[in-house]
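User: My instructor asked us to take a sequence, write out its structure as tokens, and then describe one feature of it. I'm not sure where to start. Here is the sequence I was given:
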Amino acid sequence: MSSTLTVRSAVPAVKAASSVDMTTSLGRFELPNPVLTASGCAGAGQELAQFFDVAALGAIVTKSIMMNARSGRATPRMAETPSGMLNSIGLQGPGLEVFLERDLPWLVERGARAVVSIAGGSVDEFTKLAMRLREVRGISMIEANISCPNVEDRGQVFACDPRSAAEVVQAVRRAVRSEVPVFAKLSPDVTDIVAIARSCVAAGADGLSMTNTLLGIVIDTDTMRPVLAGVTGGLSGPAIRPVALRCVWQVHAAMPEVPILGMGGIRTGLDALQFILAGASAVSIGTEIFHDPMSPVRILAELEDALAARGFAGVADAVGLAHGERPPAGEFPIDAAHHHGQLLTPDDNPV
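Assistant: Let's start with the prediction itself. The structure tokens for your sequence are:
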């Protein structure tokens, strides 16, 4: 995110206590609330600190860390799309050692819970990353990014094949301390996401992050060439929300016991509630941060209000509820017209 964004007035880290229990869990990872950042949208959290207390969120999910520094793909590598954004950053970053020396200590010092996203071009690289992190303290969870579409070799997208996905997850799970949950980040660009999810869980994943971006392309009709130098990129933002929500729904229906961190085009508290009702125990906010840096804390407050309005005692009571019987009429006393208006607000371009 650009450092030139205008700093607006700070807001309280959290709202006054309410009747809704916002605590949740992702495997063995207990969180004070279900709103996290999404990997790649706010570095390691420093960019957001000027807007709110990063410790107020459930956790900060770091940009995917690779073993060595990486310059990423050629420019241009971002493009606006209807209700979304296409990016081809290519996992740019300074590498693991800089992260451990600079970024992780910063998060720990501020009391933020750190979910470290890791990415590699081979099972061996994932293993080395996980082994290096084994004795590092201050890590609440590992997110194995096996689904980034912004790589030159599509064969590196391990999440597109059940066997490849399982090999990476098994290697990471064996290398990481047993008390640190390992989540596999899945791609929506597959025929059967449940099959991929099953393979990851069978290989030792404690839960699933769903989903990464969709592979897309934009063509400039003046130059008559692809806009992105890398040709394709990852589509994010509200345009992908129904797809991501469908993936969460399908996996929760097949494996209701598996914790899910849901993401994909979440802009409001009601968007977040949809993912929770579909089966996610927590959600990550990504592209909306570029449009509104305050969005994670705003969405958290909106989600809390939405849960209270529907009579929920806590977040846990709403997880997966859409899969069961509809509540009796009048059980959740909300203004139906107002709710309908909020739910169907047209999506603006997030960037």
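For the description part of your assignment, you could build on this observation: The longest helix spans residues 295-309. Try explaining in your own words what that tells you about the chain.
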